[in-house]
Amino acid sequence: MKFILFSAFCVVMAAAMPYDIVEDEDGQQFYAVPVSREKRQTQWGVNQAGAGISHTGNLFDNNNHRVDGTASAAKNWGSHGLRPDQVGGRLDYNHKPSGSSAFVGADNMRGYGTDVNAGVKYNIHQSKNLGVDLSGQYGRHYGGPGGTRDLGSSVFLNANGRF
């Protein structure tokens, strides 16, 4: 079900993108897709615990909304041989005018289950000298030797000021 919702979201986002139809001298029509360069970031590393790679990039950005995505994979090794592979992903949403944001992410370790986390931040007040926001997060573990269980939830009221 989640895959179907995510796929539908991707199709809707692709359909909402502006496409221009251009025609060449022979009458053939082509879609002209606007191209813009966005900063993408790939990180990788190898150490005594294992090797990993992650890639972060912007999926959608306009004057009011921004969606970023991250995908990661890791191969762990230790003193007792190879451990399971890890894969994960995360989507981050930011509402630019209000400064509010949300995220959802999942990490799977083969044989040990999947951790799913989601969170939101609502910007209550923002001025030059004072910022107040309310944030919350929830996590749940699915499958693996320990079975399905809550990882925990939290709610915070954050304030910061300049005096």
UniProtKB/TrEMBL annotation:
GO terms for cellular component: extracellular region. It is found in: Secreted. The keyword Signal applies. Residues 53-146 form the Attacin C-terminal domain. Its main location: secreted. Belongs to the attacin/sarcotoxin-2 family. This is Attacin C1. The lineage of its organism: Eukaryota, Metazoa, Ecdysozoa, Arthropoda, Hexapoda.
